[in-house]
Amino acid sequence: MIKIAVAGYGNLGRGVISALGKNRDTQFVALFSRRPEEVQKLVKDVPVLSSDKMALPQGLQIDVVVLCGGSRQDTPVQGPWFAKGFNTVDSFDTHADIPAYFSRMDAIGKKNGHVSVISAGWDPGIFSLERVLGDALLPGSKGYTFWGPGVSQGHSDAARTVKGVADARSYTLPIENALQKVRTGQEPEFSKRQMHARKVYVVADEKADRERIRKEIAGMPHYFDEYNVEVLFINREEMVKNHSAIPHGGFVLTTGTTGKQRTRQILEYRCQLQSNPEFTGSVLVACARAAFRLREKGSRGCFTMLDIPPAFFSPHSEEELRSHFM
């Protein structure tokens, strides 16, 4: 049994805990939280530990810690901190910062003898794999990624960091005309603004400056500043009624040609999720299994899903994979 601890009890943390119950080779053994006393009342089966103190009860074994905080403020701090004491998995999704974050986690992992799998999920993660495969299988091709329609957890979390925002949901909306152009085999050059729009529903504090909130969200680097953004203010009741579900998904397309006749080839991968955090949680558990196996084989340092053999994600033996999945 791979003994898994979860850091964070938000939507993603609960998604990971649910996924652990579906994997026979994993065991949920501990939960880290900034509010251990409060969360312990909700989680009865495992000890809830302070993520500020990282204090472990005597005799508790943890093989992997799955980090479930936000990429804007939590993971950049918690990732290096937990990696000093444990193997870790996270879903850090600020794409522009992944190379620098990888280097930092790699150095910590090698120094302390641990494995960290970073930026795991469906994008970055599964979509990253699809982009690499498309580029490898169709040399000279052009790749496109469309997200949505759906709720982005990372962008919602980023919007909630703005002063005066009590709650927020950020929807990513693909531009349908752009998607159809790629599906017909065209290879246009798009700006981010031409491929996606963002709609953000915000519950603001009673006395908050709504115009300031609108400008801060729309101008946030790496999240909203390169898109057409609509910020809509609603009350808490409407948020609960109409925006409690967290669906998402998207498409990875590769278009290119083969042979002397330049035969047109189009590859398309689609991901359609009724629950973004539940699916992402399932991916993180598979990556925790991979982290455990990497460490068992003597690896140290940082890895992404691109660096890991697919068989390491699976609960099945190599013989079963060859017999039933080939």
Task: Give descriptors for this structure.
4-stranded mixed beta sheet, Rossmann fold, single chain, 14 strands, 35% helix, alpha/beta, 326 residues
Descriptive notes:
It is a single chain. The chain has 326 residues and is of the alpha/beta class. The protein is built from twelve helices and 14 strands. The protein has helices at residues 11-20, 36-40, 75-83, 98-112, 126-137, 153-160, 176-183, 192-195, 210-218, 236-242, 276-296, 318-324, and strands spanning 2-7, 26-33, 48-50, 64-67, 87-89, 115-117, 142-147, 150-152, 165-174, 196-204, 228-233, 248-258, 263-273, 301-303. The strands form three sheets. It has a seven-stranded parallel beta sheet, sandwiched between helices. Helix 3 (75-83) packs parallel to helix 4. The chain is globular, with a radius of gyration of 21 Å. The mean pLDDT is 95.
Distance between the termini: 26 Å
Largest sheet: 7 strands, parallel
Rg computed from alpha carbons, rounded to a whole number of angstroms: 21 Å
Strands, count? 14
**Helicity range:** 25-40%
Report the portion of residues in β strands.
25-35%
Shape: globular
In the CATH hierarchy, the architecture of the domain at 2-122 and 277-320 is 3-Layer(aba) Sandwich
Give a topology summary.
Blueprint: E1 2-7, H1 11-20, E2 26-33, H2 36-40, E3 48-50, E4 64-67, H3 75-83, E5 87-89, H4 98-112, E6 115-117, H5 126-137, E7 142-147, E8 150-152, H6 153-160, E9 165-174, H7 176-183, H8 192-195, E10 196-204, H9 210-218, E11 228-233, H10 236-242, E12 248-258, E13 263-273, H11 276-296, E14 301-303, H12 318-324
Parallel strand pairs: 1-2, 1-4, 2-3, 4-5, 5-6, 6-14, 10-11
Antiparallel strand pairs: 7-12, 8-9, 9-10, 12-13
Helix pairs in contact: 1-11, 3-4
